[in-house]
Amino acid sequence: IFLIFLIIILTALYGFIKMNKPVDLKIVTVKRNSLIRSFKETAKIKSDDEIVITPKYNAKIDYIVKEGDKVSKGDLILKLNNSELSAKKRELTAQIGTLSGQRSMSKVQINDSQLKSLDIAIDLAKQQLAELEADKNRYKELYDSGAVAFTDYDKISRSYDDAKKNLELKENEKKVLLDSAKEKQGTKEYYDSQKQGIDAQIQEIDNNLSYTDVYSPSDAIVTKAGGKVGGYANASTQILELSPSNDIIAICSVLSSDALALKKNQKVTILQKIGEDTYQKSGKILDIGKYAKTKISTLGLEEQRVDVKISIDDMDKIIVGCDIDVIFESLHIDDVLTVSKSSVFEDEKNSYVWKVDNGVLKKTKIEVGRQSDYDYEITSGIKEGDNIVEDANDTNIKEGLKVKVKNS
């Protein structure tokens, strides 16, 4: 009985000591710090006066420079296949010849023999009319003097009238024949408009053919080549980007929501990887684009991104065409009361921390303001110098638990 009683007393004593022994937890002291929110994007080193090459017509690529190539002013950088354009030009030229033939065929052809025959008939009719006119005048004088009867004079008059009508018929026949050989009204305008349309197409082809060979406008580095030999060049898509060696900047594409927090002349941090080492440089924002472009992310999602131009303070070992990382600060506030996000836990409505009050944990309600990637700004609930548990999700934590304060 004594042993059993002793065991019970020792067990109770051990439990009491265990319950009241302070627990080792990582405790942090609340301080005023800088609240910084940042994001990192990849940028490409380019020239500020970048040259963009877009094909003038759709065609296969016979030659194109490669990304990273250095080119001099006047060097051939792109050659398009013009066989289709040349064939189209030959076809259109042939159509002009066809139009000329069609216009000639639309005219009625008059044989020389037809005209000569009509001219002879007209001459004979004129000669006959002249003879009958003389006879008519002579018979008129005879009739007036009573030498001949009226019937004889009337017969000659009728013959004269018939000869006159015959001459008119022959002359009309010639006129009709000549009129039939003339073009119909609107024929000239029709064929001229057809020819003008074809001429315009030929002129456009000649203009495109002049851009078959594309030459570099200045000394530069090829920072983008969007095609390969045997591939297809699209007239609506840029195919080459050239960066002259002066005025080097970095171009970075950031989400439009992040771009709203950036400012011109804002400082940025630049990370350049050389081999296994990463070097840090500084720079500043020169310009923030006014328009967002729709781009597809690596996950296949549509994103609205804005181009940001950045100057680099130290150009040592900076190569046009290479990639760098740029760290932007979208929030930077100095001298604010902050705690790490791991120190805060929440229920449906409020935020809390485990505050150490006289060596005992106390669930303390707080109000949070702005936040960075890792910290919260504290607006009320705790003050500078208070001790709180660094990891609010520790399973050993409970209200009233005694702890050892081990600052970090």
What's this entry about, in short?
The protein is α+β, with helices and mostly antiparallel strands and 408 residues long. It contains 6 helices and 22 strands. It has a 6-stranded antiparallel barrel with strand order 2-11-15-13-12-16. The chain has a 4-stranded antiparallel sheet with strand order 3-10-8-5, with no helix packed on it. Strands 7-6-4-9 form a 4-stranded antiparallel sheet, with no helix packed on it.
What do you see in this structure?
The chain is an alpha+beta fold and 408 residues long. It is 33% helix and 37% strand. The chain has six helices and 22 strands. Strand 17 and strand 18 form a beta hairpin. The radius of gyration is 51 Å and the shape is rod-shaped. The mean pLDDT is 84.
Output the number of helix runs.
6
Strand content: 35-45%
Strand order of the largest sheet: 2-11-15-13-12-16
Runs in which pLDDT lies below 50 for 5 or more consecutive residues are none
Q: Biggest β-sheet: count, sense, barrel?
A: 6 strands, antiparallel, barrel
- Overall SS class: alpha+beta
What is the 3D form? rod-shaped
Helix-strand pattern:
HEEEEEEHHHHEEEEEHEEEEEEEEEEE
Number of strands: 22
N→C terminal distance: 51 Å
What would the average pLDDT be, to the nearest integer?
84
Helix-residue proportion:
25-40%
Instruction: Give me the Rg, rounded.
Output: 51 Å
